[in-house]
């Protein structure tokens, strides 16, 4: 990109888009623009000096953007890209932030212009609060950011990696879409389902609250779920998620049967194995 | 207690005992002493000005203590109280910090001297690190502290409440032992079992780590478990815990079947119900 600065348009200035905008705008390399259906958000971000435009001229912004980062819900992201296919700058990169990759990549594959590169993205960060007002530059610190190539996009991945590296202290992971969707069924979708299942009980809420420690609070945290977004994610990743749920059910049945049998040594071995697994996942020494 | 200060002996200067000692010792009302099998810990706490004794003279300390707080593993706590029954100061209060209350209360009931009051205690705070070195005064801030009366102890509970209130910004809850053990099966033992079940998978640890966001990290956190302590807790609360696991299994089966059916509205209703439950438990407005 032979310009003094890189023009980036962020589409959808919510929690993720807002946080990307806030982090990248601190870097003089970038000129950040944004597209959002909410005019107030655009005006606010402009006043915050997070973006350079205070009105949305969609075609104009896309035509000059070296990179377009789509931070919309999956179906809206696909719609946006389809609708604007003729508007993207030649030789530019488009990326997204959707939590599943197979669907969006297969949708884009058939419609993408040959002079444009699409690389899938999934920043694995979030919080229970949504919207631009809850976004912040450090949202991504310490988190994983997955990039998924499409056919022929490999050669330009390094350019996107350089930009994405500037959103914070993150771990960038390159993955195939099928592997990504299978892994997040286990590492993200399953914990959300477990939190939902745990939040349901015959006890009243005050009693639960009175007897809760950190373990319960952490375990239900993501049960405070964005139902609109997650209904799509869950149904679009149904087969992988069912597999993960059934793997979990089997593990839980196994531990339950050990508890029922009451064999102290067997239970202690099981707990020691968990301790080892958790430490390995956390990358800690034993 | 008609003295200028209240003598308190803490038995077991680990994470919980150490944190209680560190918080109460900041208050001039109390003179804090400690008993621990590890001489180095006693010397360290003395040098830290957390306790007033630098050697352990068990009988002497218990004879002058208005309150004795036993912060040992359940069986050790019962053994300690039995062994020292003749040594406790007349009219003093004994309390413990064990995670289950029925067993210790029924064990104590038959051996307690009539001039001593036993009140069960359960501070619902902790972390994955153990020992005095990891203890800190603010461990209990924001947490629940359950107190369980024995027959006849009710009249002196207010005295213990006044002292316990000084360990931090805590929510003191008075409960019956059977209710306590049933509730913690759900709010504490179950989340630990779920974390253990979740930490087991066919994926390698680096891959899991690369695809983990906050939801997974929070959900496995307590799987890094103290197997010695938890083997006892789990087996001693076996019936309640099995009930809680089976309630959870039923909830999970229910959500799985909704996902399998793929009915969007039904799934969204389920997620919305979870969102509502979690907000109610957290005491948030909808």
UniProtKB/TrEMBL annotation, chains A, B:
<keyword id="KW-0560">Oxidoreductase</keyword>
<feature type="domain" description="Prephenate/arogenate dehydrogenase">
    <location>
        <begin position="6"/>
        <end position="286"/>
    </location>
</feature>
<dbReference type="InterPro" id="IPR003099">
    <property type="entry name" value="Prephen_DH"/>
</dbReference>
<comment type="similarity">
    <text>Belongs to the prephenate/arogenate dehydrogenase family.</text>
</comment>
<dbReference type="GO" id="GO:0006571">
    <property type="term" value="P:tyrosine biosynthetic process"/>
</dbReference>
<dbReference type="Pfam" id="PF20463">
    <property type="entry name" value="PDH_C"/>
</dbReference>
<dbReference type="InterPro" id="IPR050812">
    <property type="entry name" value="Preph/Arog_dehydrog"/>
</dbReference>
<dbReference type="GO" id="GO:0070403">
    <property type="term" value="F:NAD+ binding"/>
</dbReference>
<dbReference type="InterPro" id="IPR046826">
    <property type="entry name" value="PDH_N"/>
</dbReference>
<dbReference type="Pfam" id="PF02153">
    <property type="entry name" value="PDH_N"/>
</dbReference>
<dbReference type="GO" id="GO:0004665">
    <property type="term" value="F:prephenate dehydrogenase (NADP+) activity"/>
</dbReference>
<dbReference type="InterPro" id="IPR008927">
    <property type="entry name" value="6-PGluconate_DH-like_C_sf"/>
</dbReference>
<dbReference type="GO" id="GO:0008977">
    <property type="term" value="F:prephenate dehydrogenase (NAD+) activity"/>
</dbReference>
<dbReference type="InterPro" id="IPR036291">
    <property type="entry name" value="NAD(P)-bd_dom_sf"/>
</dbReference>
<protein>
    <submittedName>
        <fullName>Prephenate dehydrogenase</fullName>
    </submittedName>
</protein>
<dbReference type="InterPro" id="IPR046825">
    <property type="entry name" value="PDH_C"/>
</dbReference>
<comment type="pathway">
    <text>Amino-acid biosynthesis.</text>
</comment>
């Amino acid at each position: 990109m032979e310009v003094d600065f890189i023009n980036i348009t962020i589409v959808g200035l919510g929690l993720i888009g807002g946080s990307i905008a806030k982090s990248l705008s601190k870097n003089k390399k970038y000129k950040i623009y944004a597209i959002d259906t909410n005019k107030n958000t655009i005006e606010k971000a402009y006043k915050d000096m997070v973006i350079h435009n205070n009105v949305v001229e969609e075609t104009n912004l896309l035509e000059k953007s070296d990179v377009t980062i789509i931070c919309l819900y999956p179906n809206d992201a696909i719609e946006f890209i389809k609708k604007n296919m003729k508007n993207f700058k030649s030789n530019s990169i488009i990326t997204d932030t959707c939590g599943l990759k197979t669907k969006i990549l297969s949708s884009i594959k058939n419609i993408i212009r040959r002079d444009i590169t699409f690389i899938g993205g999934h920043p694995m960060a979030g919080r229970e609060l949504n919207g631009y007002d809850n976004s912040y530059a450090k949202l991504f610190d310490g988190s994983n950011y997955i990039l998924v190539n499409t056919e022929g996009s490999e050669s330009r991945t390094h350019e996107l990696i350089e930009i994405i590296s500037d959103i914070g202290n993150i771990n960038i992971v390159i993955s195939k879409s099928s592997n990504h969707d299978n892994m997040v069924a286990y590492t993200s979708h399953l914990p959300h389902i477990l939190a939902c299942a745990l939040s349901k009980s015959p006890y009243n809420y005050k009693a639960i609250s009175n007897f809760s420690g950190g373990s319960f609070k952490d375990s239900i945290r993501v049960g405070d779920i964005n139902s609109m977004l997650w209904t799509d994610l869950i149904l679009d990743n149904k087969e992988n998620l069912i597999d993960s749920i059934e793997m979990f059910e089997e593990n839980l049945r196994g531990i339950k049967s050990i508890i029922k049998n009451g064999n102290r040594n067997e239970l202690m071995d099981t707990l020691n194995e968990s301790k080892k697994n958790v430490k390995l996942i956390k990358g800690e020494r034993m």
